[in-house]
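Hello Y.,

Per our agreement to keep a running log of every chain we model this quarter, I'm adding this entry. I've kept the format consistent with earlier entries: sequence first, then predicted structure.
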Amino acid sequence: MAGREPTISHLDRLIARDGTDHIIDSEDDVFKIGDLAKEFNVTLRTLRFYEDRGLMTPDRVGSTRLYSLNDRNRLRLILLAKRVGFSLIEIHELMEIYDLGDQNNWHLQLVLDKFKGQMSVLSDQKIELDKSMEELGEIVTSLEGML
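Predicted structure for the entry above:
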């Protein structure tokens, strides 16, 4: 049975922007937990954790978890958000926005605002980190001078 062509939302395009997304034949594609763990270089425990937190909801056939294309895209967004420092609560909020789909562009504005806010947080952290590195460098130089 041939599947439907996948519907690609604005957010799906955003999270697949790095070109690493392999070709998906249809929205009917399913992925087992091991497939996603290997593809995204995460542990099975990580995927179960995201499921326990309500970030992903794979179908089940017996004890086997079957992830849809949507679940795969959600995982990609979760990992992107984690990589740039969002908390689990913030990731959950992003998932709620993601679930709205492309009804209007206002959801893109919400995501933009969240990402700009995180850029500000990371910028502040970078300034503090640079100060700490400078201070440590001075201490190391002093200690080396004492030897």
